[in-house]
Amino acid sequence: MSNLKKQIKATAVAGALLASASVSNLGAQQKAGIIGIDHVGINVPDMNQAVNFFTDVLGFSAVTTLGPIPLDDTWKKNNHMQSGTGAVTIRMVKAGTGANIELFQYQDNKGSKQFPGGDDLGASHIAFYTDDIKQSVTFLKSKGVQFLGEPFLMPSGDTEGETWVYFLTPWGAKMELVSYPNGKGYEKNKPATILWSPKDVHSSKSESSKNLSETEIRLLVETHLAIWNESDLKKREALMKKVYAEDIEMVDSHFIAKGFKEINGFVEDLQKKAPGSKFTHVKSIDVNHNIARLFWQNGTTDKPDAVTGMDLFVFENGKAVKLYVFVDSKK
């Protein structure tokens, strides 16, 4: 029992230290003004070979070029370079989503030609994220890329669910492929800080860049009418999730409703006041890029056009984010 108490106490202390460190780190980051990693710099023996590898094999984009730039003796001394090394050429490669890669090639390079070993000091590799590591490995092998083993799935611990494998560039530098489409083990504990991942950025961009076709928008607008005619709350909420963004804003001349809950309340109130009434659309649904216009009528079978009006939708990320309601004056 005493050992258990010691373990609990140690865990509590460790947790407090981590929390304190997180707050301290946040303060330091704000003071330093650092937002994130802009690029990673690596030296290469042949610039054309390196650029061709990053662009033709990995599919990145070469963007900027500098040099050759002569280096004076003071610069070389301050940067721990050999005095006989010549001018430098620099190219920046855009590596998909994430930090850029800065390539350096020195003319008549007098520096070491030996790559650092796995346990040597200094940067050892760059890891590239992929959603499908098997597909990536198959493709890179078809390009003649040498792998240092087979993809390995981490079975437990903080990196549970992560698959990784090392490979070599044509000039012998070690790189890595890594994948964790369902997240990593440590995320299950809902930590205060989540590691940055290009996976999350890529997913967010994919959602934000989703463009709906006119046919897709018309179908969503048709479903919008089904929402307002549905009396079952669960079914109505299920339909809402297909059509509306969670923070949708409905703007009427008399009020503004935000989110599912407020819109649901308005629909229920409307159905209570006019039992048996149904919404139907008149004319065709107009679509202009991400904006749609629906002319509607509401009423009973005997008088289907008791109330008429028009809804204007704004779609973003595949969902309606704005709904402007115009009700015609009574006849």
TrEMBL record:
It comes from the Bacteria. InterPro entries: Glyas_Bleomycin-R_OHBP_Dase, Glyas_Fos-R_dOase_dom, MMCE/EMCE_epimerase, NTF2-like_dom_sf, VOC_core. This is VOC family protein. The lineage of its organism: Bacteria, Pseudomonadati, Bacteroidota, Flavobacteriia, Flavobacteriales. Pfam families: Glyoxalase. The keyword Cell cycle does not apply. Residues 36-180 form the VOC domain. Residues 1-21 form the signal peptide. Keywords: Metal-binding, Signal. Transmembrane segments: none annotated.
